[in-house]
Amino acid sequence: MPERQIRLLGDPVLKTVSDPIVIVDDRVRALVTDLLDNVRLPGRAGVAASQIGVNLRAFSYNIDGDIGYILNPAIVELSGEPELVDEGCLSVPGLWYPTKRYPFARVVGTDLEGDTVELSGTGVMAQALQHETDHLDGLLYLDRLDKENRRAAMKEVRASTWF
Q: What is the largest CA-CA distance in the chain?
């Protein structure tokens, strides 16, 4: 399967709340295949459907070689004291900024067969679950930055060759 182009900051799909998946059909199965193929590429911890231009609630993840996907994920638990972690995004290439994230996250959704899927973790997994769910809610990590860092990030974005 060919690599799908990652949508970049400025593309309206990234600021749109993704629609729930109501029926699993061939289109949704193909989307999952695309998400899994694209998250296997080097340097990718997660890919949300919106990042490849599809306005549906699904994402894939690749954390320490554990690769999977989830449909209609919802965060059901965040715990611990939020801490600043360096964060980047495929949709905002080349930028890394300290972003407040909870050290533990748990999401619940379904798989292609309609069975319940629960994903949870700490560290990079917790960060990825929060980051990818944010994408499905029309948020980029830049939206979570403090005022000073957001201003600096947007200055970098405007000076970038991809924007």
A: 45
